[in-house]
Design goal:
Length: 394
């Protein structure tokens, strides 16, 4: 069976980024840059004050000696001119430094009377000046192609003085939940043996958080001819189709057969991980198709591990950036791992990670509390409290 690392490599190798488009900056949040973003000009464009206070030439300042005030400098106003030797200028945070000044003394050290000011001893040694280009220079690379325009990246994009950016086209996603027993939330209690369908809601939320548009959502009963119709509509509407359930090898597991008429070409079928062994990935009619297990926890774990990197790759992002494992201490022990690579759902505490009590693939109640996945190679020995483990934000 394919290992997790092998499956990820196969997936990345099979995906080609969607075309790029230019969009207004205010519409770019959550998208992936399709081209590098360079600064248009220096920042700051000239030396500015980092504090509210008084601009001075430091060598002309003596503690407790009165100095004449030579006007003021405020952000956004014209050039304040040149500071005459022995004088000071009132200045505010972000305002341009007058020529000749090399220091800003914070206003907390100042005593002002009319047109004069003096400074008590103790100011410095910091000069509280942001020199021209100290943040970045014109032409500097601020954001690389493939960067996700998350909130902090949006600040950098705006600081580049660009009103439009090149981003990948928004992927269109179709989600199909299979299973005769599934019912729409709010209706399951009305039918004996029905289960409220839940996995697709988490998958849809993940897709939207990754900057995708969910254009079709459907539930399909376990009848091949009906599922083939749903599959055809999904392939026509979307760039990527995600199927939950029907991924095993039973008589009613039709997730792969439903794409048979569309020429399903599998990249991998099954991955040696727990939970999520039945996960599969391929192409049909030129579209990407991923099959997730039907159990909600398995579906969300495999979506985090494989679907999220897939969605990043579709947008020219860096799949590895979606799988940054970090070392975290355990706040409770872990038993010996089995013969498959295991991803343990856990909750972060001040002492470290605590595995959630129910690790069954069908358990939904603990899922909301599990904010980390602990990665355990196959055959890992018992891990005691305090041991470091590799973990991924879930």
């Amino acid at each position: 069976m394919t290992s997790f690392d092998e499956a990820l490599a196969l997936l990345v190798g099979a995906v080609r980024p969607l075309p790029a488009e230019s969009v207004p900056l205010e519409q770019a949040a959550g998208r992936f840059l399709a081209a590098p973003l360079h600064a248009r000009s220096d920042a700051p464009s000239r030396a500015v004050s980092a504090m509210d206070g008084y601009a001075v030439t430091l060598e002309n300042v003596e503690p407790d000696r009165w100095m004449s005030l030579a006007g003021e400098s405020r952000p956004g106003l014209p050039d304040p001119g040149t500071l005459e030797p022995g004088t000071a200028m009132r200045i505010f945070t972000g305002a341009p430094l007058p020529a000749g000044a090399d220091c800003v003394i914070m206003q907390e050290y100042a005593e002002r009377e009319g047109g004069q000011v003096r400074f008590r001893s103790g100011f410095g040694p910091a000069r509280h000046v942001r020199t021209a280009g100290s943040d970045f220079r014109a032409g500097d690379l601020l954001l690389a192609a493939g960067t996700s325009l998350a909130p902090r990246a949006m600040v950098a994009a705006a600081s580049a003085d660009r009103d439009t950016v090149e981003v990948s086209t928004t992927p269109k996603i179709a989600i199909i939940a299979t299973g005769e027993e599934l019912a729409a939330p709010g209706t399951a209690h009305l039918k004996a043996g029905a289960i409220s369908e839940s996995a697709s809601y988490g998958v849809a939320a993940m897709c939207e958080a990754m900057g995708c548009e969910v254009v079709l959502r459907a539930r399909g009963a376990d009848r091949l001819e009906l599922l083939e119709e749903v599959a055809a509509k999904a392939l026509e509407a979307a760039d990527c189709v995600v199927v939950t359930g029907g991924a095993s090898v039973g008589d009613h597991d039709l997730a792969k057969p439903m794409f048979g008429k569309a020429g399903l070409d599998l990249v991998f079928a099954g991955v040696a991980i727990k939970p999520g062994k039945p996960v599969w990935f391929g192409r049909a009619n030129g579209r990407l198709v991923m099959g997730l297990p039907g159990n909600p926890t398995s579906a969300m774990v495999t979506a985090r591990l494989l679907l999220r990197p897939l969605l990043a790759a579709m947008q020219g992002g860096i799949p590895a950036a979606e799988l940054r494992f970090v070392s975290m201490p355990l706040a409770a022990s872990l038993p010996h791992a089995g013969d498959r690579e295991t991803f343990v759902r856990a909750t972060a505490t001040l002492e470290g990670l605590v595995p959630v009590g129910n690790q069954e693939s069908g358990a939904q109640a603990p899922l909301a509390a599990a904010d980390w996945l602990i990665r355990r190679p196959a055959g890992s020995p018992v891990c005691n409290k305090g041991a470091l483990v590799e973990a991924l934000p879930f």
